[in-house]
Design a protein that fits this description.
heterotrimer; A alpha/beta (about 325); B alpha/beta (about 260); C alpha+beta (about 375); A: alpha/beta; Rossmann fold; 2 domains; 7-stranded parallel sheet; 5-stranded parallel sheet; about 25% strand; B: about 260 residues; alpha/beta; 9-stranded mixed sheet; two-stranded antiparallel sheet; 15 strands
């Protein structure tokens, strides 16, 4: 689709599953708002899901001018075909100028599919986006080479311009319950027969009931733990802080904790408010998955460990001594 | 099963260092490897072949040096290797790249018959986009499953173990399909010395834009909707505070003071 | 010395495996003094036991330059594993030179089925002095009956087959020695004491005991009484492998030192800036480079069937002495840390010592070298 005057408005895709939204969708309403204001267009949230009228209402409260809602049981669980085909219908009908998608597992699944069908540009896994007044395009900033290189990318000749953006890099916009906005309901035209995948079994591996990508505090353990049982140190600290448990690849490869907890290039990309790395040396692949965190605290007995190069605060010491002290101090602080 | 695995030769990003003076990537002397996730994809493909019979073909787009990566694949179980090499492809973004690879795959199908599965890594460790697999599926009009950790074929059904936020889903997908593979449950095997020697002597079929009769207008910079405006190495903030007090308790107290003052927690 | 693509390809594969799968575990296995079965099995899967097995018997038969290159890589990571491979190659060398087609088919078949080989020459009272071998082989009908004890046998407890030197005529000294191959599952063959060694602790070293062990007559290699000549021919070639191991070991020690001296700060700056350290490192690298050149020159001569014997001996002698010196200096450079097990240096020093002793002590090498110089 080539650039056309008829393309307008900034869309933010709000991903849902089991009728519940992924936080990143609302987060993206913040940069979405800035871009929409800059080009004097509307900010539109796209909500696909099952029983998600409340999600649509929340999107308005988080700053969307409008919501296009497709409420259909087909969206209870994710499928590439249902989301892609529905989005294509909406795009053809409304011709958006810009589409922001959370760089979740699913966002990175259908995003390229849609962009390819539109023959337009999609910038993957952005850590920052802004409007470039000079060119009139969105400037997408993204890391490559495992975070060693940053690139600014634009999509000058085709519309919509699209990007997936990492969860956690934008904070939630203000929630204003009184804010008004239009909710447009659209029909889902996709039939079950057009869907080529079927989920037949779901296995939960994350035992703690917190989603890593949504957690505000993550405590991660690595090779320094020495054995599976010692993950109790990590769990205890996470519990004291109300955070989620993460891990390095080394700990997963050693079979100490399931892969769903893994942070890094071969695991999840996270950007919590606080990331505490315990006994993790900080291989570049791990750093690629967590260096966007607001505050990084490292506990490691090797003062030369690369993790200290990205840490805002680093304690050189034995984690088995430091963590119990840390928990004690946190409890003290909570009670003060 | 007739399986195609798409691989990319990439610099080993774990070996890349930053020149501290110019703050640029030092790519010289960095070894080239088969993209980590592509190696997992190949391992899954070879395991499927070993279980169900058939053939594994590997293909790659890149300069002549990429033959080395394809030979590596031959040494760990791939049966045949194809390289697509053409200057016209330089500067392709994901849309153009996927178009080229899709055309390449279609061309190979004329010779090798329909592929039941086309496997890719979930992303390349240099570009990190993860878009070429799904875009290729779209160009080919095939179903896709991304972030696969395992693939099983049972009673003619293709089942894919796909990562999600909380663990995994087992997904049944209509074949033929494009499947992108993350770190799987199976570490890529080591070659044997014998298979290395054999792979070294094996022929890599090299094709170009003419041999697959592709519209080069849709390739390279011309076929790429996204443009890289600027690239730079991120500045490393080296202002972290390292705490190394006499006792763990003193260290923790110092940390607590710092982070509560700054309202980190 | 030109490293061919094939050499680099094979070397990279072995290097990658050793780096990923062996290095992280070496200290642990070294402490326990246990041979790591899983690693050995994986190296065998890779075909590392087939370096000297001819291609017509499904082996690799790499040239000696490649073999030396591989020895160097093994030496860089662990000389225990390197010794296990080296000894297997020695046994194959004897078979290659002196075995018949049928014997080769039989013997190499055991290796291609996934086994290592052993080389049984040394006895409690016959180290450098092979004339004192007391193990006997007596022909009884269609069989030889073996009796005696071999000691310090690398792969003793894990080999699938051994080359065994036994006397068919005790009265004749070395001229009574004969060479046989003996499968490890022969009745009357038992594994004796497992040795607790100072170094190369990832290798398996045991006694191999023969008690009325009967083997078919056709397991005799070549002729009776020629065993000593066969043994010397074999060692004359295979000791260059030790040269390769020693070069790798020395280079590893130097690399560890380089890393250390850049990070170790004393008197306000890294000790790399101390000339005392710099000169030591310069000497270490020069000696190692010279040893490497000698080892590859010897390999080249073996490949070209030139006058290699003196060079293989010089390579083994010089490289192992260099390895000992370099690792001793390496411990010195690391100071107190060098002496601690937490750092890899002391293990390299312990491993280096055996290189001066086995495959012919360095004193024997000097005998070989001077004999070649004066009386040949």
């Amino acid at each position: 689709m080539s650039a056309n005057i008829k393309n307008k408005n900034v869309w933010v895709f709000i991903e849902t599953e089991y009728g519940k939204e992924k936080k990143v969708g609302f987060e993206l309403l913040k940069p979405g708002r800035e871009i929409a204001d800059a080009v004097k267009q509307e900010l539109v949230a796209i909500v696909l899901g099952k029983d998600v009228k409340n999600v649509a209402a929340k999107a308005i409260a988080y700053g969307a001018d409008k919501v296009i809602l497709v409420d259909d049981p087909i969206f209870e669980r994710y499928s590439t075909d249902a989301v892609t085909d529905t989005l294509m219908d909406l795009i053809h009908k409304y011709n958006p100028d810009t589409i922001l998608i959370g760089a979740t597992i699913n966002g990175r699944d259908f995003g390229p599919r849609v962009a390819c069908r539109l023959k337009t540009g999609l910038t993957a896994d952005c850590t920052s986006i802004s409007y470039n007044e000079e060119t009139g395009n969105v400037k997408w900033t993204r890391p490559a080479f495992g975070g060693n290189l940053m690139a600014d990318i634009e999509c000058p000749n085709t519309r919509p311009q699209m990007g997936t953006v990492r969860p956690g890099v934008y904070k939630l916009p203000l929630f204003d319950e009184d804010k008004k906005g239009e909710i447009i309901e659209e029909e889902c035209k996709v039939s079950q027969s057009g869907i080529r995948t079927k989920i037949i079994e779901t296995i939960r591996e994350v035992t703690e009931n917190i989603n890593l990508e949504e957690a505000e505090i993550i405590v991660s353990g690595g090779r320094g733990l020495g054995k599976a049982e010692n993950f109790s140190y990590i769990r205890d600290l996470a519990k004291a802080l109300g955070g989620a448990v993460g891990s390095s690849r080394a700990a997963v490869d050693s079979g100490w904790i399931p892969h769903a907890h893994q942070v890094g290039q071969t695991g999840k990309t996270v950007a919590p408010k606080v990331y505490i790395a315990c006994g993790i040396s900080g291989a570049i692949q791990h750093l690629a998955g967590m260096s966007g965190s607001d505050t990084i605290i490292a506990i490691n007995k090797d003062k030369n460990a690369p993790i200290f190069e990205v840490a805002h605060y680093g304690i050189v010491g034995d984690l088995f001594e430091v963590i119990p002290e840390f928990i004690k101090e946190i409890e003290k602080y909570k009670n003060s | 099963m007739n399986i195609l695995v798409c691989i990319k030769q990439v610099p080993d990003t774990t070996e890349i260092k930053i020149n501290p003076e110019t703050n640029t990537l030092m790519r010289e002397g960095v070894p080239s490897i088969v993209n980590t996730f592509d190696a997992y994809a190949l391992e899954l493909g070879v395991r499927l072949k070993e279980k169900h019979g058939g053939k594994v073909t590997v293909m790659s787009m890149g300069p002549d040096q990429a033959k080395a990566a394809l030979k590596e694949c031959l040494s760990v179980g791939a049966d045949e290797a194809y390289l697509l090499s053409d200057r016209a492809f330089g500067g392709s973004d994901t849309l153009a790249t996927s178009f080229i690879l899709a055309s390449f795959a279609s061309h190979l199908e004329k010779e090798k018959g329909k592929f039941d599965l086309i496997l890719c890594g979930k992303q390349a460790i240099d570009g990190d986009t993860g878009q070429v697999g799904p875009e290729m599926a779209e160009h080919l009009g095939l179903a896709q499953v991304t972030y696969a950790a395992d693939i099983r074929v049972e009673d003619g059904k293709t089942l894919v173990k796909r990562e999600n936020d909380q663990g995994y889903d087992w997904i049944e997908v209509k074949s033929p399909a494009v499947i992108t593979v993350t770190k799987s449950d199976f570490e890529p095997r080591y070659a044997t010395l014998k298979s290395k020697i054999a792979a070294n002597k094996a022929e890599i079929h090299v094709l170009n834009s003419q041999s697959i009769s592709i519209d080069t207008e849709k390739c390279g910079l011309k076929g790429s909707p996204t443009k890289v405006k600027n690239s730079y190495t991120p500045k490393k903030e080296k202002n972290g505070i390292i705490i190394d007090e006499e006792t763990p308790s003193a260290s923790v107290q110092k940390l607590m003071k710092l982070i509560t003052d700054k309202k980190v927690i | 010395m030109e490293i061919t693509n094939e050499m680099r390809d094979l070397g990279d594969l072995i290097e990658k495996y050793l780096k990923n799968e062996v290095d992280p575990l070496v200290a642990e296995y070294d402490a326990r003094g246990e041979y790591p079965e899983k690693i050995y099995n994986e190296l065998i899967d890779m075909g590392l036991n087939l370096l000297a097995v001819p291609t017509e018997y499904d082996g690799l038969m790499v040239d000696h330059k490649t073999e030396t290159y591989i020895a160097e890589i093994l030496g860089r990571h662990d000389c225990g594993i390197g010794s296990a491979i080296g000894v297997t190659n020695s046994a194959c060398t004897t078979m290659n030179y002196f075995g018949t087609e049928d014997q080769k088919k039989d013997f190499f078949g055991i290796l291609t089925s996934g086994k290592l080989a052993g080389f049984c020459l040394t006895e409690p009272n016959a180290g450098s002095d092979s004339a004192s071998v007391k193990t006997t082989a007596v022909l009884d009908g269609d069989e030889y009956v073996l009796n005696g004890t071999k000691c310090f046998i690398t792969n003793g407890g894990i080999a699938g087959v051994y080359i065994v030197f036994a006397s068919t005529d005790l009265s004749k000294g070395t001229k009574g020695l004969s060479a046989f191959y003996v499968e490890s599952d022969r009745k009357g063959l038992t594994i004796g004491k497992h040795e607790d060694k100072m170094g190369i602790r990832l290798s398996n070293t045991t006694q191999v005991i023969f008690e009325d062990c009967r083997i078919p007559k056709d397991h005799l290699l070549g002729e009776e009484g020629k065993g000593f000549i066969y043994a010397m021919k074999t060692l004359g070639i295979s000791r260059n492998f030790v040269g390769g191991l020693a070069v790798g070991l020395a280079q590893r020690a130097i690399d560890e030192c380089k890393e250390y001296v850049k990070n170790r700060v004393q008197f306000g700056k890294p000790i790399a800036y101390k000339q005392g350290i710099q000169f030591m490192l310069a000497d270490m690298q020069t000696q190692t480079a010279a040893a490497r050149t000698l080892a590859y020159h010897a390999a080249d001569l073996i490949d070209k069937k030139g006058d290699y014997e003196i060079y293989a001996s010089m390579s083994k002698l010089f490289a192992s002495d260099v390895a000992m010196k370099v690792t001793t200096d390496g411990v010195q450079i690391l100071g107190g840390y060098g002496y601690m097990k937490e750092y890899p240096m002391e293990k390299l020093m312990r491993d280096a010592k055996i290189l001066q002793i086995y495959e012919g002590t360095n004193q024997i090498q000097r005998v070989v070298i001077s004999n070649n110089m004066l009386f040949k």
